[in-house]
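#structure-requests
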Amino acid sequence: MNFTKLLINWYLKNKRNLPWRETREPYPIWLSEIMLQQTRVEQGVPYYYRFIEAFPTVFHLAEASQQEVLKLWQGLGYYSRARNLHETARYVAGELDGNFPEDYKGLIKLKGIGDYTASAIASICYNEPVAVVDGNVYRVLARYFVIDTPINTPAGVKEFKALASELLDIKNPSVFNQAMMEFGALQCRPKNPLCESCPLNDGCLALKQKKISELPIKLKKGKIKKRYFNYLVFQTKENATLLNQRTGKGIWNGLYEFPLIETERQLTAEEFLSREEVGAAVGEVKHVQLYNEKPVVHKLSHQHIYARFWLVESKKLPPKAISMDEVEDYPVPVLIQNFLNEYEPTDY
C-alpha cells in the first residue's frame, strides 16, 4: 500500500474530534486556521469556542471593534493575526456580501492569508486539489524521504510544496491534507515520535538511517535582541491609572500598556529615577517604588524583554486617566496581564 493510502487509513482511525471538522463552511475553518498558526491545537480550541460564541458569523466579527477582537485574542500572541482577521472579516462582509472566495487564487488575495491557509480552506471547504504545507507536513516529508533542504528557505518551500502536491490525493484533497497535518501532530511528533507504531515505518528513510532527530533542517535565526522595559504604574487616591495604546509596526500593535520607558540596559533604581525622561513622565508625585527588583523575562521569537514595574503614587493624573478596575476591559500583552493578576493597588 502506498504512502497516501496508508496515511489516509491512519487518519480515519485516529483523527481528533475538533469543532471545526464538523463543518465545511469557510468562516469557522478560516477562523480555526488563522488561530492555529503558531499555536498548538490544545491552546487554540478554547479561543475558537469563545470567538464563535462572540462572533457566530463573519458579519458579527466585522461589526466588532478592534479592541473587542484583541481582547478576546489576548494570550494567543502574534497579534497581527487578530488585526488581519478583523480587517479581512470587514472586507468579506462589506465587499463580498459575506461570501468567501471559493478557490485558492481568490482566497490568497485576502489579508492575512498565505499559501498554507489558502490551500487549507480551498481543499477543506471546496475540495480543490491544492496541497497544504505546514510545520507538521514539513516534518513528515523531511523524515520519510530524508530531505535535508532547510525548510525556512525559498528552495525548501518550493521543494516541499512540489512533493506534497505530487503525493496529494486529487480525488479527496480535504482528507489528505488534514491527514498529513494530523499525522505530524500526533504520530510523527517533533520530539519522541511514535516510530514503533507508525504505519509508514517500513518506508521511512530517516528511521532506517537513524536521522529522525536531525530532520527537518531549519536555518538558525539571527541573534536574539534584548530589550529593557520600565513600566510606570500610576495610582491615585481615587484608584486611577494611565494606559497607552501601542502603535506602529513593532510588537503588540493595538494593545494597551502602562506608560513605558525603554532603556538600553537594566538600570539601578537611582540611575533610572535620575533620568530626565523619567522625571518628565512622573511629574510631581508622592512616591515611586520598584515593584520587582528581578525583571520579568518575556521571550518572543526574535527578542527577549526584561520588564520591571515602577509603582507611582500620584496626586493627580491627566483627563485620559481611567479607573484601575477598568484596565481589565482593555486588551493587553500577556506580560501586563500577568502583572495585573498579582498586583494589588496601594491603600492610601
